[in-house]
Amino acid sequence: MKYRVFSMLVLVFALPLLAVSAYADSFAIGTAAPFAVLGEAGVTNTGSSVIYGSVAGSTGTPSVTGFPSPGSVIAPGVLYTAGVANSGPGTPFGDAAAAYGYAAGLPVTTALGTASLGAGGVGGTSATALTAGVYSFTSSVVGLNGTLYLNAAGSNAAQWTFLMPFQLTTASSSGVVIENAGPTGNAFTGTITWDVGTGATLGAGSMFLGTIIANTGTIALDSTATIGCGRAVALTGQVTLIGNVIDIPGDCSVTPNGTSGHGTGAPIAGGGVVATPEPGTLALLSFGLLGMVFLTFRKSRVSSLRAS
Fold first, then answer.
1. Is 301 within the bounds of a domain?
2. Do 167 and 297 fall within a single domain?
3. Cα-Cα-Cα-Cα dihedral of 275, 276, 277, 283, to 10°?
4. 160, 122 in Cβ contact below 8 A?
5. Is residue 122 a part of any domain in this protein?
6. Does residue 28 form part of some domain?
7. What are phi and psi of 122, to 5 degrees?
């Protein structure tokens, strides 16, 4: 009898925790998480950029110009005028570099070769929106034109990773849109990671989503370009800003018309549906239930044999 009570307690308390784990953010960036802008070779800003997150160069090149005026770093974000450590685990640049390497080693879901993104390319319409996964490219420059549509398939924790061996560029007024997220009014806890071999340039007025980690080059945001639910991290280069808005993950909300928070304008539109566990989690839950049923049956069987 006590065993059966124990079994039921396990089912009630342990299995829901497994379901919750399906929605945890599994893409860890460690101590770089609070930073919206990291430029190992420094950060340069002109214009009234507004940064919701911390800003820093490295201790080797700590120069950060254009903050706190005319740019603004919004609390609890911190402006590090002396830079932060640029190597080793447990440091912002070290952890960001580890995240870059982790992403580069993920199994590729879809190889896109030399394809472009957005209008005239991959994911350029709602009907061809990219579902969560890992997408790789081979071209020297991956261009984003118009709008890139991403389909969250009813989840507020969907994750996309884009592996680019060289350069990322976005055309002026281009953007990224997440559609069919989970229930509206909830936070979006998923991730979009742009693993870029050299550098990235966001065209004027771009409404971008996700974290750009550039391995060897500069990240440049042209006038009024925005990054929602993400960061600009240059592991060896500089980050340059011109009147931009960058908002780190954690402030991203799901709304019917789509807004990612703090006026970045990048849409995350909810479908008003309840997200369900991913197939792998469903399998794990099923195995757990079957195991508990088997053990309960075995215990009952042994007790019956002893009684006879």
1. yes
2. no
3. -170
4. no
5. yes
6. no
7. -80, 135
- For residue 15, what pLDDT band results from cuts at 50, 70 and 90? very low
Q: Residue type at 153?
A: A
pLDDT value of residue 97: 97
**Do residues 241 and 66 make contact, with C-beta atoms less than 8 angstroms apart?**
yes
pLDDT on residue 44: 98
- Do both 210 and 286 map to the same domain? no
Q: Is the peptide bond before 62 cis (omega within 30 degrees of 0)?
A: no
Assigned domain for 247 exists: yes
Model confidence pLDDT, tens digit, residues 191-218 = 999 999 999 999 999 999 999 999 999 9
Average of per-residue pLDDT across 156-185: 95
CA neighbours closer than 13 Å in the CB half-sphere of residue 194: 30
Whether 12 and 123 map to the same domain: the answer is no
In this structure, are residues 157 and 270 in contact, taking their beta carbons and an 8 Å threshold? Answer: no
- Range(s) of the domain holding residue 206: 35-270
Q: Indicate if 44 and 175 belong to the same structural domain.
A: yes
CB burial of residue 100 (10 Å; 0-12, 13-18, 19+): buried
Q: Are residues 181 and 302 in the same domain?
A: no
In the predicted model, what is the mean pLDDT of the chain?
84
What's the domain count of the chain? 2
- pLDDT tens per residue, range 25-53: 346 899 999 999 999 999 999 999 999 99
